[in-house]
Structures are given as structure tokens and as C-alpha cells.
Amino acid sequence: MAEQYTSVATTPGLADNLVKQAYDLAVGWVLRETPQYRSFVSKRPERPSMPGASIVLNKFDYFDSGSVAAAKIPLNEEQDVSAVKMPATQTVTLTPFEYGFAVTRTNKLKLTSFADVDEPIARAVAMHLAETMDELVQDTLVQGTSVLRPSNRATTGAVTATDLITASLVRQTVTKLRAQKAVPWAGDFYYAGIHPHVLHDLREQTGSGSWRLPTEYGMDYQNIKAGEIGEFEGVRFLANTRTRKAADGATGASVYRTFITGQESVAEVNLSEPSTVLGPVTDKLSRFRTVGWYGVLGWGIYRNEALVRLETGSSVSGL
Questions:
Q1: Do residues 317 and 254 touch, judged by C-beta distance below 8 A?
Q2: If we measure between CA atoms, which residue out of 174, 183, 173 comes closest to residue 265?
Q3: Sign of CA dihedral 205, 208, 213, 216
Q4: Which of 40, 45, 60, 255 registers the highest number of CB atoms within 10 A of its CB?
Q5: Cβ–Cβ < 8 Å for 275, 228
Q6: Which residues lie below 8 Å from residue 277, measured CB to CB, with a gap of 6+?
Q7: What is the pLDDT of residues 90-140, one digit of tens each?
Q8: Is the CA virtual torsion 286, 103, 30, 194 positive or negative?
Q9: How far is it, in rounded angstroms, from Cα 177 to Cα 183?
């Protein structure tokens, strides 16, 4: 008689009852990008006159170059100068809107779940808040009118997948910002929000004046080996996968938006700082608990001169 084995494979009546799928009771998190774009906002109303549906910010203007040229003419000893009016102020209107989001869990879920659900719900809601703010600020950044594209492409729709970012394009951007008197951030550097795919192409460049020239790292390859992002050509690059892109280039090519900013490029009006809200118990048996976030705020371009958008393709858009 052949040997018989009591096993998982051949004893289903026993194994099905006793051998079960196991679960790790420690539940991890999926990976997410750290939001960053609200940190690009450095201008807010300082002394609002009163609450309102919108708020108007004013900027004093300087005299134009024509008045400067006129003042170069020597004065007539016996004639007084003619007084002129101050230039009109420039205005920026900011309109706040309500934003919010909520999650309601049942009491039965809490009682029957093998893992805590309240803390993860609160964390997920908080991350949702931060990511929404990231998207809303980018909705404003894309309204800037200063745009540079490789190969002098006239429109977004003309950008191809091979129109890559270059060190020269970064230098042009810095030149444009400085020529427009944009004020840098701390350390005399402008800040750039850039997608990792675009940053890859910039770091792939070699040769004189490119990212990888060793002398630009103090004759030391160590920083390159460490994968340093850091500062380049007057710009501090901050990589973020949430940086805006869309398949709106030539023949559907992905076009990436890189935002290079100086101070006060974007202004924010904030009537209620976005924050976590614990909803009230509204059911008769107190079974439902709500966690959400709520805020009332808005953004607008404050100094268009302090914002340049690069529109490029990428060699690794499929990664």
C-alpha cells in the first residue's frame, strides 16, 4: 500500500479548515509626492480694509523711461520745471473660494477592522488637503504669460517629444527674470518646480556649460555620484512628480511645464486657513464619524515679471 500524506496539497477536508490566508496587521502606506508649490507663495494682503467677495491689491508704479530721458535735458536758469502726476497704481484682484473634502466612516467598520482606521483616515485627508493646494497654486502658475520653449516653438501644440530642456534654456530664463527685475529668493537664487523626467534630461547634458562639467562642482565628482539636484545657473531645482504636464504637444506629445519663479510671482488671499475639520455626529445612533478639511482662499499672478514657464518634452516620458 502506498504511503499517504496528510498535507495541504492532498487533504482538502483538513487543510481548507485549518490553513488560512494570513495578513500583516501592520498596514503600510503607498508612496506619495511631498507637496511644495504653496511654498512658492510669498505675497499676501497686509491690511485688508474689510471682508469682501474679493480684494484688490495695489502696486505703486515708477516713472517711465520717457520722463527719465526728458530729465536729462539741462534746466533753463530762468524757468521752473513743470510738475507731473504720479503714475497710476497697478491693481491685482484676488477672489477667494470655498474648498473642502470629507470622509465619513461607520462605527461597524471601526469595531470590526483588524487595523486602526481613524488615524489613517486623518492622515489621508491631510495629504489630500496638501495635494489639492499644490494643484490650485499650479492652476495659477500656468496663467503666467512669460513662456520659453526649445527651438523657438511658437505654441504648446508645436512642442515635440525631442524638444528637451537644456542648460542654455535655463540660462535664458535666468537672464529674462533678471532683465525683468525679478527679485530672487534667499541666496540670490530663483526657485524652479520641475518634473523628474525633465530634470533627468537636464542632468544628462554633458560638455562645457552643462550640468555635469566637473569644474562646476569644485573639480570633484562626488556631488554627481550622490545624485545632487541643488543649484544650477542661478536656479535651485525642486523635483516634484505633481508638476504639471499634459499630452497637448505635437502629435499628442507630453509637454512638461517647469515653473521658474522669483519672489511675489503669486499672491494669496486667505480668509480661512485650510485645516482638518471633525464633522458633528448627525445620526440618531451616533454611528457615523466624519473627518474632512475646509478652507476659503484664492490665488492670482501678482508679479508676472517674476514667473517664467518652460514648456518642453522629455526623453523619458514613458518611465
A1: yes
A2: 183
A3: negative
A4: 255
A5: no
A6: 100, 102, 291, 292, 293, 294
A7: 999 999 999 999 999 999 999 999 999 999 999 999 999 999 999 999 999
A8: negative
A9: 8
Domain definitions of the chain by residue range: 148-269+300-312
Q: Which of 191, 317, 241, 266 is nearest to 34 (CA)?
A: 241
End-to-end CA distance of the chain: 59
Query: Residue 161: which of 316, 25, 292, 17 has the closest Cα?
Result: 316
| 312: amino acid identity, one letter | T
CB 199 within 8 A of CB 192: no
CB 248 within 8 A of CB 157: yes
Alpha-carbon span 129 to 123, nearest angstrom: 10
Determine if the pTM surpasses 0.85: yes
A 10 A CB-CB count for 298 gives 19
Contact 292, 125 (CB under 8 A): yes
Q: How do beta strands 307-312 and 147-148 pair?
A: parallel
pLDDT confidence of residue 252: 95
Query: Is the distance from CB of 219 to CB of 227 less than 8 angstroms?
Result: no
Tell me the H-state helices in 71-227: 107-112, 118-141, 167-179, 196-204, 222-225
Q: In DSSP terms, which residues pair with 103 in a beta bridge?
A: 291
d(CA 283, CA 290) in angstroms, rounded, equals 11
Under 8 Å between Cβ of 214 and 220: yes
Strands (E), 199-254: 231-232, 235-239, 245-246
Which are the contacts of 61, defined by CB distance < 8 A and separation ≥ 6?
Answer: 87, 88, 89, 90
- For residues 40 and 142, the answer to whether their CB atoms sit within 8 Å is no
Residue 159: CA count within 13 A, CB half-sphere: 25
